[in-house]
Each structure stands twice: as C-alpha cells, then as structure tokens.
Amino acid sequence: MITTVTLNVSVDKAYKIKGSVRPGTVSRVEECTNTAGGKGLNVARIVDLCGEEVQAAGFAGGFNGGYVRKMLDEDGIQHQFTEVKSETRSCINILAEDGTSTEYLEPGAPVTEEEWQRFLQDFAWMTENSSVITISGSAPQGLEAECYKTLIEEVKRQGKQVILDTSGVYLEEGLKAVPTMIKPNQEELEALLGTRIQNRQELIKAGKQLKNWGIPFVVISAGADGALLICEDGIYHGRPPKLEAVNPVGCGDSMVGAFAVAMSRSKTPEEALAFAVAVSAANAMNEGTGRFQSEDMEQILGNVSVERIQD
Ligand SMILES: Nc1ncnc2c1ncn2[C@@H]1O[C@H](COP(=O)(O)OP(=O)(O)OP(=O)(O)O)[C@@H](O)[C@H]1O
Ligand SMILES: O=P(O)(O)OC[C@@]1(O)O[C@H](CO)[C@@H](O)[C@@H]1O
C-alpha cells in the first residue's frame, strides 16, 4: 500500500480557450474539466494506474471537499480525508490554443489546530499498513512550516520510506527530518539554496549538496530534458524521447507517483529512474492531469535513455 498526503486538496479546473490568454479581456471557455487535485491526488491516480494499491490522506471540507471525494470514488481511489470546517480550494489551469499553460492557485482556507491534531491521529494509523508515503504540494493557511517535518518523523519512526515534493519553507523544514527522496525542479532548488544554477554541472553540484545532507535519493526534474538522480549508486540522467506534450501540468506528480511505485517494488535506482521518466512523459502526452495511457508509457519506456554520469 502507498499512502499519498495532500494537505492542500483542490478542485482543479482545466479551462481550454481559443487563442492566447489576454489579460484585461473577457474570454469564453471552450471546455472545462474538473479533477480531484492538489499534487498528492495526482500522485494517487498515477500510483493506481501503475497497478499498486493506494490511499489518499489530507484535509477536505465543504461542497468542494464532497466533490473531490466523489471524483476519487469514480476513479476507484480509496481516501480517508480529515474533515475540516473550511471549504476546499479550487485551482485553475488555462490551456490556451497557443500551447501555453497558465495556472492560478488558491491558497487554501485555514486549518485549525484541532483539525491538525485529528489529521495526525488519522495519519498514524493510515501509514501503518503502507510501505511508502508521499507528501506533496503546498499546505493550507494555519499550518506551521514544520508540518511536513512532523509527518516525516512519524513515517521514519515506523521505519517506512517517504518522498517529499514541496517547496519554500515546507521543503526547508521538511528536509530537517531527512526524507528518503525529494524531487525539486531547478526553480525550487535555486530557491532552497539561494543560488542561480546555470548548467547541468551546477545542477549536479546542488544535488550532491542535498545528498550530503543525508537524503538518500535526490531527483531533480528538468521538464522535456528528463531528470537527474543523485544517490549512493551514482549519478544518472534519464531522458525521454522527443514527444508532443499536450498538458505538462502534473508531470512532477507523475514522476513522484512512479518513484513511489518503483520503491514499493524494490527496483534498482536506474530502473526506477527510467520508469519515472516514462510515466511522467506519458502524462505530458495526456490531456488529463495525473493520468497516462499504458501504451504511451510502454512505448516511451523503450526509448528512455539513462546515462551514468562520471563525477
Ligand atoms: N515536454 C515534456 N516532454 C517529455 N517529458 C516531460 C515533458 N515535461 C515533463 N516531462 C517529464 O516529467 C518530469 C517532471 O516534469 P517537470 O520537471 O516539469 O516537473 P515539475 O516542474 O515538478 O512539474 P509540475 O509542478 O507541473 O508537476 C520530467 O522529468 C520529464 O520526465
Ligand atoms: O498549491 P500546490 O499544492 O503546490 O499545487 C497545486 C497544483 O498546482 O499542483 C498540481 C500540479 O502539480 C495541480 O493539480 C494543482 O492545482
């Protein structure tokens, strides 16, 4: 069993529009798709599509909270959200005809101390039957910067593996509890280390720095250029073949989901990287967020290159 944590659940709205996003004008939406979102729920769908058992944890409240539960039920994904008084947020992704993706993310309504304490109780029993736990995305207002650190400490107390995919203060604090894997992109890494990264050499240097903090697996995702994996076995660069990306939103989450699956199947680092690159690239080819077609994934997997970097 894999448990995904999404503290900032969302009803993700994908708006398809003609032409381009034009600030200061009125645009009619051609097509609107609602998805159970917040990064961790994208991870949950990917784990499910990969054929592993998954359960989703997090906060849900109000009308949107009920709607998210219904969408997960339709996908057959188990969930056990901690009920909160405030309304679950919505996030908007505008997919324009010109190929751009523009996101507006609501902050997430406040969670009280009592609700957080109830979540911690739910989390402790949910992780007991899991081998891998993923923690993704931002946190709603009202939670301390150390919230993910607290969760990672609990997972590690239980001797389980944990992947942390977040940014800003939540990443900074979460790292102090030393998760098994992190998956920053370049922007998140630059913000964390307070430095500009100009090329692959500098990206590797930054990844090694994090590995030296004790993180066993540091994955740095780089969009169409694939991802770097820095771990005890070595440094690897996994690259997808050239492909037509339709909706890249959720690619990072797809990568996290695939790594969680690979971890639960005890794959080697090289195998895990190739699989994660293939799954995330297949997600880019799909209109849905956190979804992929098995045929796309299999075809890409046969064309992923994994280079071992001597450094
Ligand atoms: N255009 C693309 N073509 C092929 N593969 C892609 C493309 N975009 C993303 N990917 C795959 O998805 C992985 C994760 O993408 P990316 O680096 O954009 O993550 P991210 O910045 O965390 O994204 P997000 O936050 O939107 O989920 C990449 O490492 C790559 O394997
Ligand atoms: O506010 P967060 O949790 O950091 O990000 C939320 C979000 O942008 O991330 C996903 C894509 O990765 C979307 O499904 C969702 O809307």
From TrEMBL:
Alphabetic keyword roster: ATP-binding, Kinase, Lactose metabolism, Nucleotide-binding, Transferase
Record's catalysed reaction(s): beta-D-fructose 1-phosphate + ATP = beta-D-fructose 1,6-bisphosphate + ADP + H(+); D-tagatofuranose 6-phosphate + ATP = D-tagatofuranose 1,6-bisphosphate + ADP + H(+)
Pfam family, one: PfkB
PROSITE patterns: PFKB_KINASES_1
Similarity comment text for this entry: Belongs to the carbohydrate kinase PfkB family. LacC subfamily. Belongs to the carbohydrate kinase pfkB family.
Biological function: Catalyzes the ATP-dependent phosphorylation of fructose-l-phosphate to fructose-l,6-bisphosphate.
Source organism of this protein record: Anaerostipes rhamnosivorans
Transmembrane segments: none
Superkingdom, natural source: Bacteria
Protein name per Swiss-Prot or TrEMBL: Tagatose-6-phosphate kinase
